[in-house]
Amino acid sequence: MNSSKLGYAFAFLAVTIFALQDGISKYLGEHYPPIFIAMIRYFAFAGFALVLTARAPGGIKAATRSKRPLVQIIRSVLLALQIVIAIQSFAVVGLIQSQAIFASGPIFVALLSMPVLGERVGWRRWLAIVIGLVGVVILLNPGVSDAADALNWSVLWPLGGAVMMGAYAVSTRLAGRSDSSMTSFLYTGVVGWLVLIMIGPFFLAHPTPGDWVWIGILCITGMSSHFFLIKAYEYLDAVAVQPVGYFQLVVGAFIGVLVFGEQIHLNLVIGAGIVIAAGAFTVWREHVVARRKAAEAKRAPTPAA
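^ thats the sequence. predicted structure below, dont judge the formating
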């Protein structure tokens, strides 16, 4: 198997496990506080991050050195809280609708990249952003055809989660300008764990023996999905991996319908289609602009000594 096929195999495996992980999170979130579930999950995540960085060149000591520690802390806190919100979203809104709204992440990344990263967004990406936001509005109430019907305010959970995920992605890019991926990964696991163990004790629960098994499986899926995603990025560029992420919505839809009895409305299909198309175009256009800038930088004359 060539490197490209291997990369796609890892990417599809990762997003499939992410979808299974979301299904387990929905079940557990319906019975226990989401912060408690996230705290237990982060015990495994932090341990995995420590083991992985310990095996990297320079070990943990090298990975802890960051030129942007405040940015690393902020992005790590954002992800930890976003996971709590995601679990809450799956429980109160539903797996399918929540994942569809989360698919708008690249749109919010494009919006936030302007003030945070100082990036310029051309008219094509602005058009994609506007169209994508229209899709998000449709997704906020996918079970009705009359816009005058009352909005289910619980959809603000996944919408807030999508915005936070966009902020996390942008802050990760900002940190990545000076820090290694291993530094970011270590901060993500350890800082997120520290935040949740400070909050988690106020939301302690007593799962049944059977549910402890599901919690254990959730921890395993959390570690394995991130590992496979890391492997995918070893063989593929981000622009190739990103569209594969939308496959998670397909797997999640099957789980939502078959396991939890959720319904797929026409508005949801239309909204998800718009969001996915706009998000995929935004990622692709961003890649095109980045390649153009890199080519221009190579052609630029070198200043005389």
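Residues 197 and 268 are 36 Å apart (CA to CA).
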